[in-house]
Amino acid sequence: MITLTWLSHASWLIETGSHKMLLDPFFQGNPKAQHTAEDFADVTHVLVSHGHADHTGDVASVLEKSGAQLIANYEIAEWYGKHHGIKDSVGMNIGGSTPISGGTLKMVPAVHSSSLPDGTYAGLASGFVLRADGRSAYFACDTAFFSDMQFYAGNVDVAIFPIGDLFTMGVQDCLHAIKHIAPRLVIPSHYDTWPPIEQDAEHWATQVRSETDAKPVVLKIGEAHSI
To answer: CA-to-CA distance for 129 and 63, rounded, in angstroms?
Structure first.
């Protein structure tokens, strides 16, 4: 079983087997956040999709408090080692996989820019495909729609897509992505944090039901869903 908890913006708690993974923790400076880094002292891994501040804001704090392993691309892993003394990290790159929780975590492409808060080059932005406990989850992370999604994530059990528009794909491109990869369930992310990315998630869900075969699941902040 994989349990997904939306923590606001693009931050997710991912639980599978004995592992608790935190994706793109961003609490300080996030007007919708209901948590702080102190709430995640028990996580085992921190996943980082790219270097922007709204995805890395609390990475160092969570790593310091939890002792978790950092999983990110090579450039980001090296930057956290140099600037924050993080030694337990897996520096990956697009197309690579690492074993995790009786399964695998694969780093897959995302079409998006990426730099760290100090302006340092942060490598390529990414998403992740997690396969564990006989289930599969695609975290598209910050991205535009692109056709190769089907190759990396076709027919996953659940896909988590950004719908905020402006900085990522919006509702219509999300619908294209859902039709393209045919997930069983789909969950929206990266929306409503600030006015430029406000979206009506229930209207999105109505469109998903009417135009695709996927089941939409709209989570409230702090709400979990298991597959």
So the answer is: 22
Are the beta carbons of 159 and 181 closer than 8 angstroms? yes
The amino acid at residue 161 is F
- φ, ψ for residue 92, nearest 5 deg: -110, -175
The pTM score is 0.97
Percent helix, strand and coil across the chain, each rounded to 5?
A: 25, 30, 45
Mean pLDDT within 145-155 = 96
Four-residue CA torsion sign, 8, 14, 15, 18: negative
pLDDT in tens, 87-140: 999 999 999 999 997 799 999 999 999 999 999 999 999 999 999 989 999 999
Distance between CA atoms of 114 and 156, rounded to whole angstroms? 26
Type of residue found at 145: F
